[in-house]
Amino acid sequence: MVHVTNHSAGANIVGSPKADFRGPGPEVMSAETLQGDEVYNPQGDNLGTIEEIMLDVPHGRIAYAVLSRGGVMGIGDKLYAIPWSALVLDTDRKCFVLDVSTERLNQADGFDKDDWPSMADESWARRVHDFYEQAPYW
């Protein structure tokens, strides 16, 4: 049986129910635990890995996951800000699922590791949320 936990502003969680309730996860986890997780789309295409998890410090929320794709061993990677609510954590496969085709992701505004956008800029944030068809988290 697959358990689905829906959260209005957070990532949804799918997978088998946890056998016991000791320890963290999957509802409360270390951000470090999730960094490096693979991201797939529903068609099974590997879209990249979670490079960073960005916090909205004043509001106490996760704002974005930074997806890294392309390149070799971190060189030449393109980064993408993904609204946290666009991701689904699959606890069985230990990965995230993002409902976007590879072709569509290639159209997204990405950035270089040495030239990040101003993620606190509301107009930038609205464009990102609109692209992934997500309501702003704020």
UniProtKB/TrEMBL annotation:
The PRC-barrel domain covers which part of the protein? 27-104
| Superkingdom of the organism of origin | Bacteria
Name of the protein this chain belongs to: PRC-barrel domain-containing protein
Taxonomic source organism? Castellaniella ginsengisoli
